[in-house]
Amino acid sequence: MADIEENIVYSDIDHGEVLEPSRSIKFKPSSYDSIRSSFLKGRLESARNNALTREYSGENAQEKVARVAEKIAKLEEKILILSRDDVPEDYVSRRAIKLRKDMISNLRYHSNGAYVIGLDKKEEIFSDEAVEEAMASQETDVTPAVETPYNPDSSDVVSNEEQEVVVPPVTDPVTTPPVEEGTDIDVVQSGVERQEIEDAINSSFEAAEKSGEGEAIGTDVIRDVIDTAMDQVDVPTDEVHEVIGDTDVPSGDDPQVATEREDDGVSRDVIRDVIDTAFQGVDEQQPSKEDIRSAVEEAFQNVSQDAATTEASPVVPEDRVSTSDAGQVHSRLYDENGNRRVRRKKYNYTPMTDAEIREAQIKLGFDEHGNLIDNGANSVPQKATKARVVGDLGSIPSFRDAFVPANHNIEKTERNSVVTDTPVREVPVVTPDRTGDEVKHVVTEEPVKDDAARTLDDYAALKARILDLVQKRDATHQRSVDAQRVAQESAREAQAARRKLEMSQASYQDRMKKLADYVVSLEATVAENVRQTEAAEEETRKNRDFVALQNEAAAKNDQIIGEIDSMIGDVQTPQDSFGGDAVGGMRR
Amino acid sequence: MENQEIEKKMMSIVAEDGSIEEVEVILAFEFKDTKKEYVIYTKNEKDENDNITVYVSNVDRSSGEPKLLGVDDEEEWNRVKDVLRELSKSE
């Protein structure tokens, strides 16, 4: 097999003219399938490699990369399906995001003025490891963190929840304050209450409807509204480190003891993730207002569910974790080099962080401010829309950069990272410390029974909604597959018809040329005939003139003859009277 | 078989009588040493044992448009069959 493939190169052909009969051979179905698969795999890999040698130019380079990344992901999916049956349904979206990130990070400026990647990065981008990562099941991603004891003084490694990288403990004595065993650190979540976000979104909905946008409401408008609402309630991004300490922590500004909002609260990116996920189903249809409201409501249910499943208590406005938890949180948040981990779980893709987007923009020479000003505000949402269309691969530029809050009258809630302004509702939170003993931190004065019941209701509603969405997803997926199949068949028919037309046109042109040549030939013949006719007529005329002249001459001769005969007759009469012969009569 | 429905490579061929036919390409390749190109295609004709008939043609692109020629040389034909035999064992 290897020897054979070293001696041949797969080629491509889509039409041909049969000049000689082909030789035929018969194959068993299994052999036939093997040959077919080998060829298909070869073509797919060739197409995939071609993507790396392309040039990406202009300010749309990132969009082009995103499109190519999705195309490559689809090719890889087909390759995988050829050899295995357990390819996840969301493989393409997961892989496309990873590919886009890797491809953008490897873009380099080319002498032609474009950006290229190059085949030397093939292994880095198409590595089996990356494919396997995209193949990992979603269930694995949402596996809760393993409660591994954390010892800051030892070199033992602690696995994070995805068990992908072993992370050494934090040992920097300067940036990480020592924490006494058993000491609790209160971590005050500066996230935003769900109700506040919903209220703000409703306000923005109303503002949009009053301004007329609501009449032709689309998902982009809704995303705009939601982003505006998040600006109004100041939903923090994941880039903000929230820090709080008690007497054991020297400063509330110390950035090294960071809480992980991904686990504890609602961040802008998390909200955006779930909303975009919910919108994926809506985008495929013509969304109505009710669809949009339903999608947003579902998104927030997802957020609530997310928080409920990651915490011991279903509703925790203020989270409190022990220092041992803080150590694990740190190891989950940062890798061994101190870089923040990219979150990859729960949803179908991992959006680029603002820092990653900025880094990619710098590499591509993207001036986000100049872009906004030079291209006009209207062009930015269009770009953002395109970015979503290719598979929710993230927005370039970001939502925050692209959209301006529509309603500035809503009072912005002032917050800081230490103390929330809103009344704190405290509930008992039980978290294990390093010794495994349970530590109760706060005693609540307000029963949480209603919240728990609400959570159950939310769960039931969410579950029903998920089932509904899964059915819709499957149905739309099937429709999409059918439509693509029909489109491919029609494309083939169109191609065949085009070739038939081309051949017909070629034949027609050939006939027309022959006809034109025949006409020219006929015209020449006619001209020659005319010329010959004219020559003949001229000859006839001349002959007639000659005949006339001859006749005239003959007539004159006849006349002369007559006169002569007449004269001769006069002479003979007297001679006869003389009795002499005629001959003698002529003598004078 | 679902996998086999993933992607079909179709080709239009113009027969000697001028008729146009859509056939499925199952392999197209070129020998690196001889630079000779071949296409193996099928009209999905099956016999009573479900064996599938495929056709092998030599592709001539010297005039620009691909022309399908026969494979007359027996050595050449055996070489093509070797390729098919090896690829059929690949999975």
What does this protein look like?
The complex is a heterodimer of chains A (588) and B (91). Chain A is mainly alpha-helical and 588 residues long. Among the domains of chain A are: 180-247 and 262-320 and 394-446, no CATH class; 486-586. The termini of chain A are far apart. Chain A has helices spanning 2-7, 29-52, 61-83, 91-105, 122-126, 128-135, 138-141, 194-210, 219-232, 261-264, 268-283, 289-310, 323-333, 354-364, 368-375, 379-389, 399-402, 449-578, 582-586; strands spanning 8-10, 15-18, 23-27, 55-56, 108-109, 115-116, 158-159, 166-167, 184-185, 321-322, 430-432, 438-440. With 91 residues, chain B is of the alpha+beta class. Chain B has a domain at 26-88. Chain B is built from one helix and five strands; from the N terminus they run βββββα. In chain B, strands 1-2-3-4-5 form a five-stranded antiparallel beta sheet, with no helix packed on it. Chain B starts with 8 loop residues before the first strand and ends with a helix. At the A-B interface, helix 1, strand 1, strand 2, strand 3 and helix 2 of A face strand 1, strand 2, strand 3, strand 4 and strand 5 of B.
Order of helices and strands of chain B: EEEEEH
Low-confidence sequence ranges of chain A: 138-193, 211-217, 235-265, 282-286, 306-327, 343-347, 370-448, 574-588
Number of strand elements of chain A: 12
Strand pairing plus helix content of chain A: what structural class? mainly alpha
Mean pLDDT of chain B: 88
